[in-house]
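Holo model, guanosine-5'-diphosphate. Inputs:
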Amino acid sequence: GFKCGIVGLPNVGKSTLFNALTRAGIDAENFPFCTIEPNAGVVPVPDPRQSKISELVKPQKEIATTMEFVDIAGLVAGASKGEGLGNQFLANIRETDAIAHVVRCFEDENVIHVSNAIDPAADIEIINTELALADLESCEKQLAKVVRTAKGGDKESIAMKALLENKLLPQLNEARPVRGLTLDDNEQALVKSLFLLTSKPTLYIANVDEEGLEGNAYVDIVRGIAATENAEVVVICNKLESEIIELEDDERAEFLADMGMEEPGLNRVIRAGYELLNLQTYFTAGPQEVRAWTVKVGATAPEAAGVIHTDFQKGFIRAEVIGYEDFITHKGEQGAKDAGRWRLEGKEYVVQDGDVVHFRFNV
Ligand code: GDP
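Output:
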């Protein structure tokens, strides 16, 4: 599975968000939910297309695809030097595929701010500096290694040395994240091999007041920073979300309608995390179950089959595919077949978002 780590300074609303996210999982019947550890939760990825498919197929059950969220508390200035829970904090971030960075954009006298002022730019900088310092150390170690091998003429070492000296180290020395650099494919592959913290895809979650969902100056600051470092922004009121999640289904629908919201803001967070990771969904649909599966954008049919079971990938023969729109327009598999919209695809086929797939395989 794919894992998104929730980070941020103390008292910005991380736990409130995490609790709302994990509570969101319990409500939906038949959706797999589990709490792995107190601070990790598996959350279904909301996808309205799945209900549309199910209306046609009428399966016994529906299973959503999921994403894991981890609440990573404990960051203080000095973490990169091992202060506080610093080392553990950095190790936890290293294990994630993406970072959701919660930033306080709400005012509330009753909630103490660690540096006594609401200042999103300063807050972001504290965290990004710690992460950049940790990366700086990794990069300096790496440079010491490749200096020798580069002298010996090793091509990859020469490229790595150039990348470190010309791009990564200057960026990190200014406490700027590596994800903000423009890199070519070769450089990206080299960066990947370094497992840096600041190269992880990042989503800023601007946590606002109920009144601050629009026209919030703090949010504009967050957006400005995100734009300079290839990061995304989601604006949400975590407190409101934690209240929405406590409501019964019908009350919730009414409440959302009153607020002029189509769905809980949490859904946007989950989907943003999903998109950040360059993930997409395909479906399997039969009378037993309609199920959503996650694959990387660009995955081939056998790779997609491997998400269900490695045997499906090894013994892959063909994929029967109906595009999502065709499936809906022609009211299911038979209709799509009659309309000539049912395809038999081979092992080179690149799976498209929303595809309804049935795999043929040898065991
Ligand atoms: P964490 O330390 O980052 O995990 O922060 P918490 O989630 O524990 O939140 C700290 C305090 O801020 C709690 O008292 C929350 O109820 C409060 N809080 C969180 N989000 C909001 C919000 O959007 N508005 C207001 N007014 N308070 C919030």
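Residues 26-36 have pLDDT under 50 and may be disordered. Residues 3-47+64-116+200-276 form a domain with the Rossmann fold fold (CATH 3.40.50.300).
Archived with the compound record.
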